């Protein structure tokens, strides 16, 4: 399970150091793709395969399903760690997520999110967690 927040920088060549705790879980090859809320998602191969199975169950006759699958799968890139524990982020993914220098890597259960640090501050607001927790309980059908 991925958890924790780490701050790093993207170098001028587009390389990013992956925290050692994340490297252990990622393996040698993994997938980086567009994520929701303007970040990138990083999946170990096993978790990516599970995610692809779920996406494969969407009906291709549904326009939203096709668009979402394109968003996730067409934007995906196979990545490997170099000897210094870095990955080279493709230009298209860096542009999508607005990654220029300061980034935040967040462990989120089965994947990692890579955020432009300013976007993280704008989009991720923990001030209403009591209200959100109540809403999530309603989604699960609990009180």
Structure, explained:
This protein has 143 residues and is an alpha+beta fold. It is built from six helices and eight strands. It has helices at 20-26, 45-55, 63-74, 91-97, 117-123, 129-140, and strands spanning 2-9, 15-17, 29-34, 40-44, 77-80, 86-88, 102-109, 111-116. It is globular and about 45 Å long.
Characterize this entry briefly.
By secondary structure, the protein is α+β, with helices and mostly antiparallel strands.
Lay out the secondary structure.
Blueprint: E1 2-9, E2 15-17, H1 20-26, E3 29-34, E4 40-44, H2 45-55, H3 63-74, E5 77-80, E6 86-88, H4 91-97, E7 102-109, E8 111-116, H5 117-123, H6 129-140
Antiparallel strand pairs: 1-7, 2-6, 3-4, 3-5, 4-8, 7-8
What is the number of E strands? Answer: 8
Which sheet architecture does the biggest sheet show?
6 strands, antiparallel
Mean pLDDT: 93
Coarse shape: globular
Question: Share of helix among residues?
Answer: 25-40%
Question: Structural class given helices, strands, pairing?
Answer: alpha+beta
User: How are the strands ordered across the major sheet?
Assistant: 1-7-8-4-3-5
The number of helical elements comes to: 6
Rg, nearest Å: 16 Å
Strand content: 25-35%
Order of helices and strands: EEHEEHHEEHEEHH
Cα distance, first to last residue?
27 Å
